[in-house]
Specification:
The protein is α/β, with parallel strands linked by helices and 597 residues long. It has three domains: 277 residues, Aminopeptidase; 152 residues, Glucose Oxidase, domain 1; 149 residues, Transcription Elongation Factor S-II, Chain A (Up-down Bundle), CATH 1.20.930.40. The protein contains 15 helices and 16 strands. The strands form three sheets. Strands 1, 2, 3, 4, 5, 6, 7, 8, 9, 10, 11 and 15 form a twelve-stranded mixed β-sheet that branches. A two-stranded antiparallel ribbon has the order 12-16. A two-stranded parallel sheet has the order 13-14. The two termini are 18 Å apart. The relative contact order is 0.13.
């Protein structure tokens, strides 16, 4: 339930009226003068100091934390065909850890289609392949890359799948570990000497040549990989009644390699500065606090900034932060509507914020993913982002995201692809959401739709695995999920009926319940790691219930095999963890309902 009294409505109206497009445009142009901004660079330091000065100008105290991060910065790449003809193909290096060195390497080039990649022999070969692997729109993830590494591949040349603008080549990463590695997962980062990316247009022509056979190629991929000290900027606008509780408003400061990053994420930093300026001026009207964190290490550190922050501030995030709000890619040219809303316990507040700005809702809802700096699923708070999108006829379906602009992660991401009028609309929606979350007396959490979607997903998983029902099933877990649906509806109904009559003590008790239901449910719905660990990047956080998702693989195995028994035992243990999350959430809601009756 979202409670907006007259004071909150008036506060939002004042904040909206105070948005200064001229100031935002000026800040945007100043940031573009610094760009491109690579982590570990002088430009990153300048950008952080620029934002720090702005925050201090608005009366905020800042901390700049410096820490060691494992960064992989692409420096240079080249691809030359030596025979049967000579030619040079434009390319860009993946963000990966290994390097050929400036001398490069020469080998036979072969083409492997998506369905054979990772299976066909490729020892000592340079492999030409498609970015879109079989059944996977996100392309080459680390499972494929590690398999190819173990098959002793010499190098990989990946054809960009983007045929919307077939001359562009989006800078991409290897989807390995999240954040800086540990002694446990350093070997999960592939070390293929070179992974190069070429445009769809060039790839089509090269594929025809390579399929004829007898092609030799020379490739170079130079990377700067190692530990560097990088700065993370933090400030907080303190609330007045529940100051220890805060929403984490965050954005990454660095831009992609070889890209000015006009809306990825310079516009996001401009939005954060404007939000900080306006909210700071009204700090005496805040119920809870607004904490702001600016991440380094997003692009070439595998979200090193947000994962380090989760480690560094874990206890207070676990016990005091009620939501993480990520700002990335606002203000894109042509982005005239708001994209879909994530299915979480705060989706009502997000949708309400969009309606407040546009007068209408969104076209669809989607499962919330790990995308970007969503490094806090294990810690337990919901992750939210509200961003404008280009309409379907202008939306490049092969990007992630820049409002769907074709210039995402390319050198073409220059100032003409940013629009301060669109940015103003984004900031209004962001402001609406933040104030609703901070000032609504009862936290605007509603688990109804979230619970229903989780129940649907679990039921679908069971239906797809009926063949192994006698060995392993989700029946008990689905019953827990059904109970969670029922209790969520009862809880929301009770809040609607009683919220305005609750005492301060009851409101505090209810808010604590809402936060801890999140803490129990979110980690099992979105993470396969412990509370202070990071979910794997293999699915980029898009896979619901990753702890038990391998039930689908169990179906494909021989029931008498060694592999079946191993996976079966793993799934039983993981199912117990998921079921415990639902159990604890249900118990907590039941106790709260009894207390409020």
């Amino acid at each position: 339930m979202i409670i907006l009294n007259d004071d909150i409505v008036e506060l939002i109206e004042r904040l909206e009226a105070g948005i200064d497009k001229g100031l935002m445009q000026g800040n945007w142009e100043e940031m573009m003068e610094i760009a491109p901004i690579l982590s570990g660079s002088e430009e990153e330091e300048r950008a952080i100091m620029y934002m720090k000065e702005k925050f201090e100008e608005y009366g905020l105290e800042c901390n700049v934390h410096r820490f060691e991060a494992y960064l992989s910065q692409p420096k240079y790449s080249s691809l030359k065909i030596l025979s049967p003809t000579e030619m040079e193909v434009q390319c860009t290096p993946y963000r990966q850890v290994n390097s050929t060195g400036p001398e490069g390497l020469e080998a036979e080039m072969i083409y492997i289609p998506p369905e054979e990649l990772g299976y066909a022999d490729c020892r000592d070969k340079i492999v030409l392949c498609e970015q879109k692997t079989s059944g996977d729109w996100m392309g080459l993830r680390n499972g494929f890359l590690l398999r190819l590494q173990n098959m002793a591949i010499a190098g990989l040349v990946v054809i960009e799948q983007d045929d919307y603008k077939d001359f562009v080549c989006h800078q991409r990463a290897d989807f390995s570990v999240s954040g800086s590695p540990t002694s446990d997962n350093i070997d999960d980062i592939q070390t293929i000497p070179a992974i190069l990316h070429i445009s769809n247009r060039d790839g089509q022509a090269l594929r025809k040549l390579v399929k004829q056979g007898g092609v030799r190629a020379h490739i170079v991929s130079e990377m700067d990989t190692g530990w560097k000290s990088i700065p993370l900027l933090e400030t907080e606008i303190r609330g007045n009644e529940e100051a220890d509780k805060f929403i984490l408003v965050n954005a990454h400061v660095d831009t992609p390699p070889f890209s000015p990053g006009v809306v990825d994420n310079l516009s996001g930093n401009v939005a954060v500065m404007e939000l900080a300026r306006l909210i700071s001026a009204e700090r005496d009207k805040l119920r809870r606090s607004v904490r702001i964190a600016i991440w380094p290490g997003h692009e070439i550190g595998r979200y090193a900034g947000s994962t380090w922050y989760n480690d560094f501030r874990w206890h207070e995030l676990r016990h005091r932060c009620f939501a993480s709000y990520n700002i990335d890619s606002p203000g894109a040219e042509g982005a005239t509507k708001f994209r879909d809303i994530q299915i979480t316990e705060v989706m009502d507040a997000a949708l309400d914020s969009v309606k407040a700005v546009t007068g209408e809702g969104v076209e669809s809802y989607r499962w919330a993913t790990r995308a970007g700096d969503g490094s806090f699923w294990g810690t337990g708070m919901p992750h939210v982002s509200i961003t404008t999108s280009r309409p379907e006829d202008l939306y490049d379906p092969h990007v992630n995201y820049s409002g769907g602009g074709w210039w995402w992660h390319t050198p073409y991401a220059t100032m003409e692809h940013g629009d301060v009028n669109v940015l103003e609309m984004d900031v209004k929606a962001e402001m609406n959401f933040i104030i609703r979350m901070v000032n609504s007396p009862v936290l605007p959490f509603n688990f109804d739709k979230y619970a229903e979607r989780m129940h649907e997903i679990l039921t679908e998983m069971q239906e797809k695995s009926e063949k192994v029902r006698d060995y392993f099933n989700l029946d008990g877990l689905i019953k827990r999920a059904e109970t969670f649906v029922e209790l969520s509806k009862r809880l929301e109904k009770t809040i609607v009926e009683k919220a305005v009559t609750l005492s301060d003590g009851q409101v505090n008790e209810l808010n604590e319940t809402l936060m801890w239901v999140s803490r129990h449910i979110n980690p099992v719905a979105h993470s396969n790691a412990g509370p202070s660990e990071q979910t794997s990047m293999e699915t980029f956080g898009a896979l619901p219930f990753p702890r038990i998702a391998e039930i689908i693989d169990l179906v494909k195995m021989n029931h008498q095999s060694h592999e079946f028994n191993l996976l079966h035992n793993k799934l039983v243990r993981q199912r117990n963890i998921v079921e415990e999350g639902f159990y604890q959430a249900n118990q907590l809601i039941e106790r709260t309902l009894e207390s409020l009756s």
